[in-house]
Design goal:
Blueprint (H helix, E strand, L loop, with lengths): L1 E9 L4 H20 L4 E4 L7 E8 L2 H12 L2 H13 L2 E10 L7
Antiparallel strand pairs: 1-3, 1-4, 2-3
Helix pairs in contact: 1-2, 1-3
Amino acid sequence: MIVDLRTYTMVPGRLKAFLELYESEGLPIQRQHLGEPIGYFTVETGPQNQVVHLWGYESAADRERRRSAMESDPAWIAYRRKSAEAGNVQHQENKLLRSVPFSPL
């Protein structure tokens, strides 16, 4: 299993706006292509104004296939444009995690 761990740091004061736009417009498109996320969180302690989410894939090839389909979806392209214009995200970091044999996932 591959887990895509994504951390987005928001412009201070823009977290709520990001979550509202994402929940109403971005998440439905991602669910269509990627399925349900493993988890979607806001940071309570440590660096503030962050959203952390995890997506699971069978393999790197599975991730590439699903994300490529999503990236070519006109609805996703429109959402990304709208999200960028809103100016909510300050920084993004992605990590691909590979499960070890004794991992419960």
